[in-house]
């Protein structure tokens, strides 16, 4: 049994270890045999064998103690000189230790390389502990962009340290925190930062701050340029438009087609300039009024606009189900809803239905404009609110579109902390819905008696 298991184990060994093992077994057997022989000669074979066995056991204990002591004190295993099993053990320990040291050296070198990369990044990188939001590590750019200092700010709660940025709430949102696109640097307020929160492990989060000053400046230049050009175009256009309006095509039949086309195009340009100016104004706006916006009269106005635009070609349905009013800017909200209603009428063939529905949604409310029109193929939907993005340019132009309507809607909704939802099925119709949170609704005020909704 013992022999079988010994050979079994021996099979798992490499050739040098097996030979060391055999070497030790052979020597022990030889020693015991010599002791037995000497004992026989002296007339006391068993005591001699027992003494020899005890000496062997003592030697093994001494060897074992040496190995344990070295391992415990993290000493390097001794360089083996003999050919026995203990030497084989020391050799194997030494090989493992060497392998581990080489691996550690490689890991440390890699860690240094990664740290050097993170430290050299032009973006500020701060590692914080998830629960306490205490700073664990940061790179050099975090000093220049966020004003963090070594070693003062290690273990400091980041929210408190950057109190001026008011990011405590944002940090608390964790995985759901949307990037903050434009935040002034606490070190230099004219430096603009884009902040992102990246939860990269269970316990550690990364806060990355990128200097977007140049980008913001370019964006401002673009905004100013569009606003100025639109503004400059407005006056000459009004003059041209005014004179064209004075010319009656019916009075000059030979010029009639040209005059009509010129009038149509000048109207289009006027609408375009007006929309561009509206967008510029919305972009420059930081927030909106907190006025109470009566929804019932607004829905009535939207119905009238839809009917005027449709000229009886569509069925217009208004469903006012919420008994709530909105909080915000009546002018901007009306312009946004009006764009949605105008789109629904323009992109729905004759005989279709346009439904304007205002209903409760959780603690807030949603205004949805539903049509039974041509619908929009799914790949286009995410891009619809980009400026001048159209599914069909010719269709948009024919129906008097500027390509800016949904961009205006999105800006207005952003200013009201609301969201634009779009769902559509080709051939069946579309639903454009504006979702308002609890802070943007209030119970409906009673209309003054005699007032028409
Ligand atoms: P436009 O002035 O061209 O209508 P918008 O920004 O209002 O510009 O809309 C962008 C595009 O979205 C439109 O060109 C059209 O292709 C599509 N669209 C908007 N509303 C609808 C709708 N109700 N049904 C189908 N397509 C729509």
Ligand inventory reads: adenosine-5'-diphosphate
> Under the CATH scheme, which class of the largest domain?
Alpha Beta
Strand order of the largest sheet: 2-1-5-4-3
How much of the sequence is in beta strands? 15-25%
Principal-axis shape: elongated
Can you tell me the CATH topology of the largest domain? Heat Shock Protein 90
Reading the helices and strands in chain order gives: HHHHEEHHHEEEHHEHEEHEEHHEEE
Largest sheet report: 5 strands, antiparallel
At the fourth level of CATH, the homologous superfamily of the largest domain is Histidine kinase-like ATPase, C-terminal domain
Which runs of at least 5 residues are low in confidence (pLDDT < 50)?
Answer: 1-8
Mean pLDDT: 90
Helix and strand composition category: alpha+beta
Domain module tally:
4
Number of helices: 13
Briefly summarize what is shown.
The protein is an alpha+beta fold and 453 residues long. Helix content is 51%, strand content 18%.
Overview of the structural elements:
Helix content is 51%, strand content 18%. With 453 residues, the protein is an alpha+beta fold. The protein folds into four domains: 90 residues, no CATH class; 91 residues, 2-Layer Sandwich (Beta-Lactamase), CATH 3.30.450.20; 68 residues, Orthogonal Bundle (Helix Hairpins), CATH 1.10.287; 153 residues, Histidine kinase-like ATPase, C-terminal domain (Heat Shock Protein 90, 2-Layer Sandwich). It has a five-stranded antiparallel beta sheet. A five-stranded mixed beta sheet has the order 7-9-10-12-11. Strand 9 and strand 10 form a beta hairpin. It is elongated. It starts with a helix and ends in a 10-residue tail after the last strand. The N terminus is likely disordered. Bound molecules: adenosine-5'-diphosphate.
């Amino acid at each position: 049994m013992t022999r079988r298991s010994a050979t079994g184990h021996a099979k798992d060994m490499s050739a040098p270890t097996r030979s060391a093992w055999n070497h030790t077994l052979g020597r022990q057997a030889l020693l015991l045999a010599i002791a037995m022989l000497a004992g026989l000669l002296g007339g006391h074979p068993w005591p001699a064998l027992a003494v020899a066995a005890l000496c062997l056991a003592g030697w093994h204990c001494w060897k074992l103690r040496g190995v344990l002591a070295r391992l415990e004190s993290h000493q390097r295993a001794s360089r083996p000189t003999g050919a026995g099993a203990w030497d084989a053990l020391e050799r194997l320990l030494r090989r493992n230790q060497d392998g581990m040291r080489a691996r550690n050296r490689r890991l440390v070198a890699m860690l240094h390389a990664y740290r050097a990369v993170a430290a050299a990044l032009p973006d500020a990188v701060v590692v914080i502990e998830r629960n306490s939001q205490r700073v664990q590590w940061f790179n050099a750019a975090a000093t220049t962009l966020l004003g963090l200092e070594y070693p003062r700010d290690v273990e400091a709660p980041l929210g408190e340290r950057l109190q001026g940025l008011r990011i405590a709430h944002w940090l608390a949102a964790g995985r759901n925190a949307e990037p903050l696109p434009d935040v002034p640097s606490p070190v230099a307020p004219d430096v603009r930062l884009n902040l992102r929160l990246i939860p990269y492990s269970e316990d550690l989060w990364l806060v990355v701050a990128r200097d977007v000053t140049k980008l913001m400046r370019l964006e401002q230049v673009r905004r100013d340029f569009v606003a100025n050009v639109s503004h400059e175009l407005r006056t000459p256009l009004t003059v041209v438009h005014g004179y064209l309006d004075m010319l009656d095509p019916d009075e000059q039949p030979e010029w009639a087609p040209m005059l009509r086309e010129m009038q149509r195009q000048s109207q289009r340009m006027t609408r375009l300039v007006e929309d561009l100016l509206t967008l510029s104004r919305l972009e420059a706006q930081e927030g909106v009024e907190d006025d109470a916006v009566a929804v019932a009269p607004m829905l009535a106005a939207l119905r009238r606009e839809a009917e005027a635009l449709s000229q009886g070609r569509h069925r217009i349905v208004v469903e006012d189900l919420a008994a709530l009013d909105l909080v915000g800017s009546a002018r901007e909200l009306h312009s946004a809803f009006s764009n949605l209603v105008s789109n629904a009428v323009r992109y729905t063939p004759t005989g279709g239905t346009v439904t304007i529905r205002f209903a409760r949604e959780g603690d807030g409310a949603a205004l949805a404009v539903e049509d039974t029109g041509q619908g929009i193929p799914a790949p286009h939907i995410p891009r619809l609110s980009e400026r001048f993005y159209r599914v069909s340019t010719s269709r948009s132009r024919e129906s008097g579109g500027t390509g800016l309507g949904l961009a205006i809607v999105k800006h207005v909704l952003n200013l009201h902390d609301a969201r634009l939802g779009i769902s559509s099925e080709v051939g069946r119709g579309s639903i454009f819905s504006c979702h308002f949170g609890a802070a943007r609704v209030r119970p409906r005020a009673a209309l003054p008696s005699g007032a028409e909704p």
